[in-house]
Amino acid sequence: MTRLPDFRLEVYFSRWEFTARYHLAASDAQTMTMAELLALADDEDRHAWETLSLGYTETFGDPGLRRAVAATYERVEADDVLVFAGAQEALYLAMQVLLGPGDHAVVVTPCYQSAETVPMALCEVTGVALDPANDWALDLAAVAAAIRPNTRVVSVNFPGNPTGKVIPAADLARLAALCEERGIHLFSDEVYRGLELDPARTLPQAADLSPTALSLNVTSKSLGMPGLRIGWIACRDRELRSRLERAKHYTTICNSAPSEILARIAIKAREHILARNRGIIAANLPRFEAFFGAYGDLFEWRAPDGGCVTFPRYLGADGVEAFCAELVERAGVLLLPGSVYRSELTSTPDDRFRLGVGRADPGPALEAWASFLDGR
């Protein structure tokens, strides 16, 4: 295993996330207060919260939480769920368990950096790029062509970060079948599921499509509760699940007891929370449409198919890196420049930036951004 590189997104955020006046790069939906979340608890979970003992918890995760998670799938049982301290731990340990020297992985780009760099630290990796000229379409033939006899993992993320892309459900089903036929684990990052603009385009979950696939999810993104630090992997391969649990012994061992109860409440109330968050996004999108329409000479923009991030194009002569730096330094408006999503595996657009559309009331940020552009 080679040394992992700096995590570019976190390095950038460590400088600006809590100092910039306006955060327009957020990857999560609008959060809730503790009081708002506890008001959604049923009697069982309110009692569990009020009588909670702050001891160690089960490595696999709180049984009630695992049951609540399993209920969001069609073919997954509670025993098929393993709870982690966020999606990052889950992704990291899954790659450690699934990959080693002599193996090969296929990663669809652009993607969250660790989806690429963790496999690259373990084995050979081939990237397959979404096509920005074709609405970020996924070329299934290119994925199939990238597969080798020693391929162990194909990694995808839909709705996508940062593109907001949702592929056709038939394409995901074909990909799951292809992986299963060839003895490959499909690793599917589904953290934005539930925030599709058109609910009819909501994709099936990979763990329901194939007994060898892994579905990754978390309370952070669609539910807007990153402070809980609770994520999970659902997989019907019990032997693999056992290996994942043993790997967790070397990281967090177990999760935060309060966070597991709060996550249980959130997941049971997920339809209510997701409807709220979809409503916030729906209210925000016309404001972003109007903003980018007013500055059509500088930006190309499209709303996300799903999730709460999108990847607009900057057309200015100064370049997106310089533009984002000047915008945050002079106007206090934070965007994520495209270099954060630079891939070592594929050519990636160098004129894009990540924009978050899931937080409440972007008006003041858009006004500051417009004043900056008008004053240049």
TrEMBL record:
Q: Name one GO molecular function term.
A: transaminase activity
Is Transferase among this UniProt entry's keywords?
A: yes
Q: Where is the Aminotransferase class I/classII large domain?
A: 53-357
Give the keywords, sorted: Aminotransferase, Transferase
InterPro entries according to UniProt: Aminotransferase_I/II_large, PyrdxlP-dep_Trfase, PyrdxlP-dep_Trfase_major, PyrdxlP-dep_Trfase_small
Could you tell me the superkingdom of the organism this chain comes from? Answer: Bacteria
A Pfam family of this chain: Aminotran_1_2
Query: In its keyword annotation, does this UniProt entry include Transport?
Result: no
Q: What is this protein called?
A: Aminotransferase class I/II-fold pyridoxal phosphate-dependent enzyme
Q: Which organism is it from?
A: Nonomuraea spiralis
